[in-house]
Specification:
The protein has 319 residues and is an all-alpha fold. The chain has 12 helices and 2 strands; from the N terminus they run αααααααβαβαααα. GO terms for molecular function: heme binding; lactoperoxidase activity; metal ion binding.
Length: 319
């Protein structure tokens, strides 16, 4: 078993590798190689969000599922082949929205015309997510650029490594802390549920015996999901108060029993995370500040640069 010196050496080696990897990134990475990069992303994002208002929440979710597994490397965008089942075909990723994938495809096509073989799919996803969050009322934060795209994507690596709303709450916490995120950062990132929706299958089993729900809310959800599983597309907004606006209403809903998912209720019920829920419910500026910092941290988690990845010509297939 490794002693303290060996563990210290391992930590220092990992820290140095992380520093060297991040040092290859820059906020203006494409200033010379693709000057219209940010403009093209902004145009694509605006057009897509106007025509499909759920794009912001969907893209944020895809970005999270990409980053939390192996890092922000666009591996979730890869399609399965006859020889490999990719991440996006894992059970938990089957409900990832098509609008997010379509957005990245459109942006990639435009960028390939403007500056061929220059911009990575992972950078497209990272910047598009930031722009969409800001567009629906959320905080603006800086995004370092210069990631490359990973060539490996396996559905078998997904289970147990992404948080499910029905998971034991301590397991969800472990998923975040093992990746270097604090409890406060976990709660801040959970605030992403202020936009978007969840399918009935994610919470229906709790509606009849979970006392955390507001009773009238539970009855309304039972009615909304009464045709499930016959219609598995049935879904409900995560935040019933302001579902299309990025704000702190999600946190204000939890003490009232208006959380949608079991993991939402656990955030408020667990004494380890309740203080942060209460803080963000009372102070939207603090939530925005911490969410922005957590997203900046998440966006460089596990990134690949240089020869560790590639610049894909198509975001759904390796070169």
């Amino acid at each position: 078993m490794a002693g303290p010196p060996a563990l210290l050496l391992l930590f220092l080696t990992f820290s140095l590798f992380t520093f060297l990897t991040e040092s290859q990134l820059a906020y203006d990475y494409y200033a010379k190689s693709c000057p219209r990069f940010e403009e093209i992303i902004q145009e694509t994002v605006t057009n897509k969000q106007i025509t499909s208002p759920t794009t912001a929440a969907g893209t944020l979710r895809v970005f999270f599922h990409d980053c939390m597994l192996n890092g922000c490397d666009a591996s979730v965008l890869l399609s399965s082949t006859a020889f490999n089942s990719a991440e996006r075909d894992a059970d938990i990723n089957l409900s990832l929205p098509g609008d997010a994938f379509d957005l990245v495809t459109r942006a990639k096509a435009a960028l390939e015309l403007a500056c061929p073989n220059t911009v990575s799919c992972s950078d497209i996803l990272a910047l598009a997510t930031r722009d969409l969050v800001s567009m629906v009322g959320g905080p603006y934060y800086k995004v370092l650029l210069g990631r490359t795209d990973y060539r490996i994507s396996k559905s078998s690596n997904v289970e147990g490594n992404l948080p499910r709303p029905t998971m034991d709450f301590s397991k969800i916490i472990q998923i975040f802390t093992s990746r270097g995120f604090t409890l406060q950062e976990m709660v801040a990132l959970s605030g992403a549920h202020t936009i978007g929706f969840s399918h009935c299958k994610e919470f229906k089993s709790f509606l009849y015996n979970d006392t955390h729900y507001n009773q009238r809310f539970a009855q309304a959800l039972q009615h909304a999901c009464e045709n499930y599983p016959k219609d598995q597309t049935l879904s409900v907004f995560n935040d019933i108060m302001t579902p299309n606006v990025f704000d702190n209403k999600y946190f204000q809903n939890l003490p009232k029993g208006l959380g949608l998912l079991e993991s939402d209720h656990n955030l408020y019920d667990d004494p380890r995370t309740r203080p942060f829920v209460e803080m963000y419910a009372n102070d939207q500026n603090k939530f925005f500040q911490d969410f922005a910092k957590a997203m900046e941290k998440l966006s460089v988690y596990g990134i690949k640069t240089g020869r560790r990845g590639e610049i894909r010509r198509r975001c759904d297939a390796v070169n």
